[in-house]
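Is this the right way to post structure tokens for a design question? Let me know if I should format differently. Anyway, here goes:
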């Protein structure tokens, strides 16, 4: 057995540091699996689809006009996006998860353990609406929207 394998086991880091190979959330002090582990892309995307479908249903129920699903031309055409943003903001701020997150057993948490709150929830939701910040991820799989809001999306169980 090499010295590196003795220090870090079979999963020793390739850089020779002796640490076990790092996983998403390692630098944040999160567990590798189970409750509190970083959410993977599958449940994240499923939660997003659920939330987007619900926002569209709510928007349609409000105006009862299928033209809200066309390319945005008037202000009313942005109603599904507004419903999605408000749902994401308020539910994350007050209960730490949107409806889609709850159904996929995910929760938005602050790294210091405090509730997300209105301001951080608003920052996170506004950046999600811009789409691009969600796609800019770091080595832990945390999107720019979560880094700027000081939050992380983790498994609730």
């Amino acid at each position: 057995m090499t010295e590196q394998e003795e220090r870090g086991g079979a999963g020793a880091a390739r850089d020779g540091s002796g640490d076990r190979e790092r996983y998403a959330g390692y630098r944040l002090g999160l567990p590798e699996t189970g409750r509190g582990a970083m959410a993977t892309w599958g449940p994240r995307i499923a939660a997003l689809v659920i939330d987007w479908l619900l926002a569209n249903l709510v928007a349609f129920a409000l105006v009862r006009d299928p033209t809200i699903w066309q390319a945005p031309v008037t202000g009313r055409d942005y109603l599904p996006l507004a419903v999605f943003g408000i749902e994401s903001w308020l539910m994350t701020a007050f209960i730490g998860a949107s409806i889609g997150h709850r159904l996929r057993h995910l929760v938005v948490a602050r790294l210091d353990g405090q509730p997300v709150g209105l301001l951080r929830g608003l920052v996170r939701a506004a950046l999600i609406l811009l789409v691009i910040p969600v796609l800019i991820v770091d080595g832990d799989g945390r999107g720019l929207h979560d880094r700027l809001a000081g939050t992380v999306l983790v498994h609730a169980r």
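Format looks fine. Someone answered above. Worth noting: Helices lie at 3-8, 41-63, 79-95, 99-103, 117-129, 132-135, 144-149. The radius of gyration is 19 Å.
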